[in-house]
Design goal:
nine-stranded mixed sheet; 9 strands; globular
Length: 152
């Protein structure tokens, strides 16, 4: 049995040359995600992104975003107990002069936030694993499809 793909929107949010990530935990595992989440039926991609940014990092004003800048397929291995297929639609935004001291989360899955230098992303477990894309991407670049990335 195959699962229907889920759509997830997220944003590469830069602040002074670094990227904001959200820390998640599952039993025995820590991983990082771009802030974002699932799209509800009847909700536009940008509306879903703004809702998720409010929930995950407390940004409730409509942060200007560009994109999508990337689309990534994450497909779980056939052998997994629960089949998983997520289509990640990634936007970009600049946190500019915002104070990140006020970054908070109303999402129970988020266990914290951190800013990362792009060069340091190889040392973190990032879902989807888009470190190489982030190291080459520049604001204003055209959208790119990153292909199917198999979940571990």
């Amino acid at each position: 049995m195959t699962a229907e793909p889920r759509i997830r929107v997220s944003a590469i949010l830069s602040w002074k040359g670094r990227v904001l990530l959200c820390r998640h935990e599952k039993p025995g595992k820590e991983y990082w995600l771009l802030p974002g989440g699932g799209v509800n039926s009847g909700e536009s991609l940008v509306d879903a992104l703004h809702r998720e940014l409010a929930e995950e990092i407390g940004i409730d004003d409509e942060l200007p975003v560009e994109g999508p800048v990337a689309i990534v397929d994450s497909i779980g291995p056939q052998s997994s107990f629960v089949p998983k297929h997520v289509v990640h639609i990634i936007f970009a935004g600049d946190l500019g002069g915002r104070s990140l001291e006020a970054v908070t989360s109303q999402d129970a899955a988020v266990r914290g936030h951190s800013l990362f230098e792009v060069a340091d992303l190889d040392s973190v477990v990032l879902h989807p694993p888009i470190q190489r894309f982030l190291s080459r991407w520049q604001p204003g670049d055209p959208a790119v499809y990153l292909g199917a990335l198999w979940a571990p």
